[in-house]
Structure formats: C-alpha cells, structure tokens
Amino acid sequence: MDVPVSFLDQLFNERVLHDTGVDGLYARSALFEDVISRFEAFALSFGKDEISESMVFPPGMPMPDFETSGYMKNFPQLAGTVHAFCGHDRDHMGLLQCMAAGEDWTKGQKATDVALTPAACYPLYPILARRGMLPEGGAYVALQSYCFRHEPSKDPARMQMFRQREYVRVGSAKQTMAFRETWKQRGSEMMELLQLPHEVEVANDPFFGRAGKIMASGQREQELKFELLVPVNSTSKPTACMSFNYHMDNFGQAWNILQADGSPAHTACVGFGLERIALALFRHHGFDPDAWPEGVRKVLWG
Questions:
Q1: What is the pLDDT of residue 2?
Q2: pLDDT tens per residue, range 140-161
Q3: What number of CA atoms fall less than 13 Å from residue 208's CA on the CB side?
Q4: CA–CA gap between residue 85 and residue 144 (Å, rounded)
Q5: Residue 213 and residue 207 in contact, taking contact as beta carbons nearer than 8 Å
Q6: Phi, psi (5° rounding) for residue 278?
Q7: Per-domain residue ranges for the chain?
Q8: Less packed terminus of the chain by CB within 10 Å, N or C?
Q9: In the chain, which residues have pLDDT < 70?
Q10: pLDDT digits over 4-15, tens only?
Q11: What is the pLDDT of residue 3?
C-alpha cells in the first residue's frame, strides 16, 4: 500500500520550498515569493485610500518594547530573543574548544537588547506613543514584518519564521471596532476572489498555563479575535490565514498612546499570514500558477 505523500513533501518535491533540516524553517523559491508579492499587492489595493502611512519592520524589536507588550506574560512558549557572544579572547578560545569537542558552546552567549518580533504590529505602538497625542482621526497604518514563534512542526503552514502583512487602526473604540468589522467582510471577499474555501470563526490566542485558559475563554466570550480559516495542511483542522483582532485599550495603556481627548487609544488589526495564503493557493490550485483558474490569475497577475 502506497504511503500518502504529505503536503510538505510535495512542496519539497516541487521545489516550491526547500528543506533546511529544521522543522518550520524553509528556503523559499522564486515562484513562492512571486505569489506572495502578488498577494500583497492585491491586499494593499483594498485599503490604500484609507491608510495614513506605511512601514516595514525588521524581524527584531527592542527588548524594552518586547517586555512592555506583555508577550512573555502570555506566550513564553513561543517567544525568542537574540543572544550573542560578549566575551574576551580567553572566552573565545573556550568557545572554540567546546565546538571542537562537540560540546555546548552556547552557554557563554548573553542576551542582547533585541527580541525576535512575535507580531508585526508590536513595533508600531511605541513609535506612535513617542509622537504624542494622536490626531483627531487616529492612525491607520499598513505594515509588514518577519515574525518568529517557537513552534517547530511538520505542518508547512506553521513556520517558525514567517511574514505578516497588517493593517492597524488606532483611535477610539468606535473607530477600531468599525475597522475590524469592515475587514472581516473584506477578508471573505478576498478569499472568494481567490477561489479559496474559507470560514470566519471566533477564536482565541494560545495563552500559556492555567491562567491562560481563563484568558482564552474571556477572549472568546468577548469576541475580541476572529480568524479566517482555510484548509491547507488538513481539512479537519483548517489553518488561520487571516486574523481580525480588537485589543480594546490594552496597548494604548501599555505604551501610553493617547487619543486627541487625552484618553488611552484603542487598537485593532487585521493580519494576513503571507506564507499561509501562498500555501493555500498552491494547495487548492496546484503547483503551476499558469494552470490556476483564470479568475484567480486575473486577480493576482492582472
């Protein structure tokens, strides 16, 4: 009996992705990157007349801002920090001896002032806070960043290093809630144009520990997070390819982002998992974009 070939192995066999030997860390082909760039252009066409500015962030963020975000409190199992060699000549010799002997050489590494960015919108909030009070209309920012989450997996849609394209709305509760509802509708419209099966469901983040279960329950009850799900690696467990989040004034208070009236700002974001959406397109339309449905090609290639 033939053993089914996993979707990940198909991606490797077709050279869409390339194995590095570490689960969730893959080299990407030019074809894969082309699909992502075309989807980004498609996504940006929806909100281009609404944004106040655009930003692209590196995959690292300042440690103090990372700590202010509360990520270590809620998701320590996913976090990553940047460590580096900070020793002298003698320490270097010891490091080389450990490597030569096949021993652990990382014990001499020390934390730097950089953490790996876990969510694309996090670096934005301290920038807005440093500017002072928001204008009357708040802020509406398009941004992109590489992100890191420590969850190695054979599921190609669960990468450790991945990109998020986001729109972030910062302002009043009314402004941010209206933004999220608009993007929930747009998200479904986008998936229909790409001819991808999908559903939008209330969701929760993977909060850590016993207290995290209570937080996750509260998040679902308040309907603070919705996800747009598409079958990618599994039909029984579809993948979150977009998320629609309302943070209330949590980040406004954490970073002291103030509205024009002096009250803490509310925030909301819509996030597109760029690698996940590309994988969904390959999964449902095949590995040759030239053979994709004409309607999909028109959306992405014009």
A1: 58
A2: 999 999 999 999 999 999 999 9
A3: 10
A4: 30
A5: yes
A6: -60, -45
A7: 7-80+118-301, 82-115
A8: N
A9: 1-3
A10: 789 999 999 999
A11: 59
CATH architecture of the domain 7-80+118-301 equals 2-Layer Sandwich (3.30)
Contact yes or no for 207/215 (Cβ under 8 A): yes
Sheet holding 239-246, edge to edge: 53-57, 139-148, 161-171, 266-273, 239-246, 225-230, 199-202
The residue type found at 93 is M
Q: What is the pLDDT of residue 47?
A: 86
* pTM, two decimal places: 0.94
Q: What are phi and psi of 165, to 5 degrees?
A: -105, 130
